[in-house]
Each structure stands twice: as C-alpha cells, then as structure tokens.
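User: Can you help me understand a structure? I only have the sequence.
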Amino acid sequence: MNDPAARTAERPVMFPDPAPLAAHQPRRPMWSCRACPQPWPCASARLHLKGRYDSDPVGLSIRMAAEMAEAMKDLYRLNPDDAPGPRVMFDRFLVWPPFKRPAIPTADL
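Assistant: Let's start by predicting it. Here is the structure, written out as tokens:
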C-alpha cells in the first residue's frame, strides 16, 4: 500500500503537517526555539512532545529533566550572573508535562 492518502485514512495523524513542529527544536546554547523567538520548549514543542510521549509520561518527565540539566549548564556558562533561577527553569521544563496521579492516594497507604 504505497498510496499516502490510503495510509492517512487508516490511522489518524496527530500533527497533520510535521514540518513546522519539527522546526521547534532548541537553539543551543541559548535554549531559544529555532522556529519562534520563545524560550524552548515553546508551546508548539510542548504540544509535539506531549503527542510523542502520550503513552510514556514518565519518559517525557525524564527527558525534560535531562533537557533542563543541559539548559542550566549552557545558560549558567553563558551568563552566570543573569541566568534564569532554578524555580524558573523547573517551571519551564518540568511543570507542564502531564502527571498521572496514582489510583490510590498515598496518604491512605
């Protein structure tokens, strides 16, 4: 089945035009988005990452923690006196990924 239209009909495409989303990658060492002037991860990158890690929220959190560590190294090396603080970096990289609560509250254990 080499017909692209037939393949699209078989499975829905979450991101119909992947080219713009693929452009939303970090520009290092400044950690701004390559496609828009926002700090990375921008809204489009977050949407793309949420779709890519839809079935693996823990994997997304681990990846974003690693990205945050790299961003902190780069940004603090570039400008140690004016780099974003730890709370800003935490909010930027780790607050937005989906978090699934356990079925049983931990206080009841």
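Now, to help you interpret it: Residues 42-97 form one domain. The two ends are 53 Å apart (CA to CA). Let me know which part you'd like to focus on.
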